[in-house]
Amino acid sequence: MAVIRGSQARVALFQRLGAAPPGAQALGPAKSGPGQAEGTNPAASPVLDRILERPDEALKTPDGFAISDPPEWLWTENKSVPPLRDSKAYRESDHITRLSPAESRDLAPEDRKAYDKSSADVTMKGGTTSGVVYPLAVCEIARSFHLNVGGASAGALAAGLAAAAETGRQEQDRQRQEQRRQDLEEPSFDPERRENGHVRPGFVGLADAMAWLCELDDEPDGLLRSKERYRLGRMFQANGPGRPLFGVAVAVMRRRWWLVPVRFVLSTGWRSVTGSILVTAASGWAVVASSPQAGATSMPTVLSVLAAIGAIIALLVALVGGLAALVAIGALVVRGIRAVVRGPWSDQRQGPDGDPVKDEPRRPVRRLAKIALVGLVTAAAAGLVAWWLTDAADLLWVAVVGGMLAYVLLVTVALAAGLWHVMRTAGDHGFGLIPGAEPSEAEIDDASRPLLCWLSDTLSELAGLERGEILRFGHLWWGAGYDPQSPPDDHATTTMMDDPRSRLVNLELVTSEVVQGRAYRFPLATAEELKERDGSALYLDLSDLDKGPHLVPAAVRTVLKARHAEQLMATDIRTKKQVTLVPLPDPRDLPVVFAMRLSMSLPGLFQAVSMYRVVASGDVRDEFGRTLTKNGVEVRYPPEPSVGKATWCERLWFTDGGVTSNFPIHFFDSPLPRWPTFGVSLSKHPPGYRSQDVWLPQDWDLKSAPTGIFGSNLAAFLGSIVNTARGWRDNEQMFMPGCRGRIAWVRQLSDEGGANLYMPRDRVASMCLRGVVAGARLRRRFESSEYRERAQWIRMRAALANLDELARTVADALEGEPYPGFASGTPLATLPGDPENENARLRLNLPPVPTYLVADRDKKEYWMAVRGLLEPLRTYATARRGAGAAPVDGVLSRNTPKPAPELRQVPRI
């Protein structure tokens, strides 16, 4: 039933992962008991192993319930496996030389069958810290399968780590094969490096990383009585401007509610005002408490003297504050008049040449405003002193209440003003709190490295690269031996880009770009293809890379600037600022951690990543498509840059991939897959399923997932609208035929995962355990040839129904004009372009409208291919007709899995 929680979860996870790497003596001497192997941990509970190997014996059933085993249950057979930190756990699938899928097509039938049986794709859903579920799920799957991986948001983080681990494992496989598969002793691993979060190559290193995050090796008995280190949360480090507000978020995550208002006040930038108000309020209270009318509640004489001194100081400050208030109010009025005259649209004025002119510094006015607030509050305090001296007791208590209300009002105004300032200037800080690689002075061996620094180092270590080397997509495609200084030729690179099946390890990530409102897929297309497809390649601003805040480590920034010789001077179309742009590296040389950073930019938490695209000049037309002119010149926007002037560019903002596709399982799907694509998704416990932490439905089970608790308040309704808008396609696809039986759902409580960065280690361990169970169930299910073939049979039934419908639709269209002429083999001389504006295009020296006619060198081969493709469709459609003209209902479409999928043309991201 429910997976283990609490401190027992850490012990169970320790048992599943196994001992620390050789050479790391953190476990201490373990005493061997009867029947116990030397070096194992006697205190570690075997409960998780029992859950994974014999769940019928290990799981406890709530009172009043019983469990009925399905017939031919997969888990009836006991299959003991090595722990996840033992390299022997991942050797079951390396019995054939590792090739790319394209190369495997030339294998002998038996070898190809073995290749397909030991291959799988894995896609993981986004979810911030819920991503701790995924690494050990992938490790469990990797026991029997070689992997291609993909994901979005936190799923992208886990996918990148898994791809690096797969690359490292394949490198180790090759080394073992060169030594005739002799068992190698595990190399020693520096315990100090392990303590600082460094790992070994391959999937054992991925298990090392999760053990480090859960602090499993910090105590000799696995019970972890030491103080919480919050290693996961401490990797999320905000930079200077975002640190105060991030402190508020951390207080909420750690449920220190008393600290939230204090940190929120301090985060607004009004510390001096708030401090002065608090001091003044304390002085006023002291004056009231020491008054003769206080009677029995009066304070001791010493405090009364101090209160009197405070009152005198308050009077003096009130005089100065009152004068400052007049000056500040006058300055604000003048500033308001100037703002009205200048207009509300620009915070910057533009000089004659279009360059922005900065406003005058605002700090003097801000200081005066603060002094004004202090003066007002201290004036109120002076009034309290006056009433105290005149023995007006009733008026005194009215003044006390009024002062308290004034204090609350002023604090509220200060908070609102600070919050408005934060929201107004959010774009200056990337719309987020955490850059990712700040503070940049963290050393490579520092245990307190920021998240992106730790990720970059860990990726290189998992892939088995030299220390300090950056993992690039080329390492995944060609192996760990890829040399960026001597890359393969252009033909090999083009093959890798055009055909993902040519890659040894295929990593697919998605990110969202909010200016254009679209998704980008990584690995990114080449610059030439982007220009042809989107009109522009993507560029980085050199000043963004150099000045910070740093979104990626220094070594990664150096790689991103590799094409600095091709830098481009451009003018931002919105701000009119001059920027120096450098194109992104070639796709093969793009750092993997940079693509992960783009995909895992959780809005509000992580700062968005800015890049640029070149904006081409376009002609402006009226509502009927006619070209507009001014003074005899065609109007274009943006204007064509004059000779010597920089081209125009537009700033783009990249944020979390989950905004556009939070579960991109379609990345690896094909109509007739050679091997399964696994999915690991996240969800809340539906009503009635509280005891089921991991759910793996059968393909004949429910047609949709059990729904969670739906709130009755407006906030819940609006949140559901947002979730539906961005996730309905993913949700529909999860229950397509052949999909629902290969997606494991890991369920969480409200205090687990999400944005809970500071989860206790036992909670992190419990989530990791659920990942272990999900991965083990997927692995065990698809190790069964019967289930794998059933899934492929279902996919073929659905695909044949689609192909039948597509063939009949195309054949019907070929019977009427104009397609018979297009497909006749007689190429057209020309195609209509834009006759209404063709003359204008000629005058402006613009390229002609594309006609997509076949090049002369390709005509013979092209029309042979057309006839070879379409004639069988005509024959098929004819055979599918009865004696009359009406088509016979397709046998291929009868009794197919529901809901039936459909084939349609959609943009490839």
Automatic annotation (TrEMBL):
Checking SUPFAM superfamilies in the record gives:
FabD/lysophospholipase-like
Q: Which UniProt keywords apply?
A: Membrane, Transmembrane, Transmembrane helix
Q: Where is region (Disordered) located?
A: 24-44, 84-127, 166-197, 884-909
Q: Where is the composition biased (Basic and acidic residues)?
A: 85-119, 168-197
TM spans (from-to): 264-288, 308-334, 368-389, 395-420
Family annotation (InterPro entries): Acyl_Trfase/lysoPLipase
Q: What's the protein name?
A: PNPLA domain-containing protein
Which lineage ranks, top first, belong to the organism behind this chain? Answer: Bacteria, Bacillati, Actinomycetota, Actinomycetes, Micrococcales
